[in-house]
Amino acid sequence: MLVLILAYLGGVLTILSPCILPVLPFVFARSDKPFMRNGLPMLLGMAITFAGVATLAALGGGWAVHANQYGRIVALVVLAFLGLTLLSTHLAEWITRPFVALGNRLSQRSAGDGDSIWSAAGLGVATGLLWAPCAGPILGLLLTGAALNGASVQTTLLLLTYAGGAATSLGLALLIGGKVFALMKRSLGAGEWVRRALGVLVLCGVAAIALGLDTGLLTRVSLASTGGIEQRLINAVRPPPAPQPVLKAGAPLPMEGVMPSLAGATQWLNSPPLTSESLRGKVVLVDFWTYSCINCIRSLPYVRGWADKYRDHGLVVIGVHAPEFAFEKDPANVAKAVRDLGVNYPVALDNDYAIWKGFNNQYWPAHYFIDAQGRIRNHHFGEGDYQESEDVIRQLLTAAGQKNLPGGYVSDNHHGVEAAASNDPTRSPETYVGYARAQNFLGGKVAHDDAWDYHAPNALGADQWSLDGRWSVHAENAQLAQAGGSIVYRFRGRDLHLVLGPASNGKPIRFRVTIDGKPPGADHGMDTDVDGNGTITAQRLYQLVRQANGSGERLFQITFLDPGVQAYAFTFG
Fold this sequence. Notes:
The protein is α+β, with helices and mostly antiparallel strands. It has helices at 2-13, 24-28, 35-59, 62-87, 89-102, 117-131, 137-149, 153-188, 191-210, 217-221, 227-237, 294-310, 331-340, 354-358, 386-399, and strands at residues 267-269, 283-289, 315-321, 347-349, 366-370, 376-381, 431-432, 451-454, 465-473, 478-480, 486-492, 495-501, 509-515, 533-536, 540-546, 553-560, 566-572.
């Protein structure tokens, strides 16, 4: 229910978004007509179309984006005709004649022809096609969740709720606008002039949208933005991290529930499908992870070590791969990552988040420790406390009757990207590049889903970042349209990682990294050389910087020598 309320409020706030401004004249064009026959059908058509386009964009991939672009062109043509009919009654009669003959009244008819519910609904469909790209952080989260979780009743309900919120604010504007225009007509006798003024505004709106100003310039120069308000709403309802259990030496482990079903896995790697029932008599460690998560990668050496160390003593480790980004749903990508990372224990692909929901999990990585009777006895979220976790494993194995367990702890001497993070508490936070969760971006507003020329500022503050060059920023990532584009970030930390992917055609992309304007030298990461050169060949996390001395503040820049790169998220160590 809380998520539905959040979606509705996000929709209500959408009308304040600058990219909505060119759409409003189409709404006010019918503000002086009866609401039930004109305003309400238009709002319903807009809401249903908006939700439909958003669903396709989230679930259908790139083809849906192109389809929506064609839909926008059709909508612009229809609405341009609408504007012309408002300017001239003679033209209105001529234009509407074939529509009347066909029974498809999609364009507004003149006042003398009467009102049509279907023409109002048609105008709503066109408005919905133009409204869909105006996404704030809340809609971005809904679209990202839909892309990850797939088609469902919940996805459709959330998007319809968001669209309903947008229709509510539009309806209020329509009702208020109708009264204002009626008052102007009565007091000034200027009905014809008001109608023509609306026609001019509609045509101006068509021109603004056709030129891309709705998602480009207006969103960048406007002082009004709902992003901050929506982000505060998201933060207000986001649950705080669950407390870690405090274990006392010799005290029995608490009972935290029964192990949920594993039946929701979409595929298994390294093993035939496992069930909760078949695992009875075994101590089980369930590790929720995803292969581009740096926190998961740094905890993997311990999970692998426990699996190897205690495999012959009754421990079964199950990696539940729950994707964060859409490309992590591809079984081939996961299988390659499993091989590259040396994961040899069973891995369940949880693309539909069924197992995730069964455990009521919210974190990567998350470890759940289950006894031989199938009961959850302990959990741990995030990195760290590895010796305490191994003590839990030994305690559960001992309770299951295992004897002569190997002593000591799994080694913490790990190298490369798997090395533990630095102890710098001021290191930069995880930073997403897609607009759904982007923070600390400097360089103007972001144009959603449209190619735009960005210019990085001359100076960045700590933890600020920017784009440079022609980019298309989507909810989950940013894609470079032309070679030579860059991302700059003033970061603090020993390590800098960036989740990257090649172009949709899979062609490798060359890049060059600089630190404080110079080649990284000894501070290069595993995926760059001393001159800062590297190549993107797969969708994964790339380690670009590992400072040889300390974790001080530095200015990072990565320049891509080929177009098409997809950038997802920064993480630091």
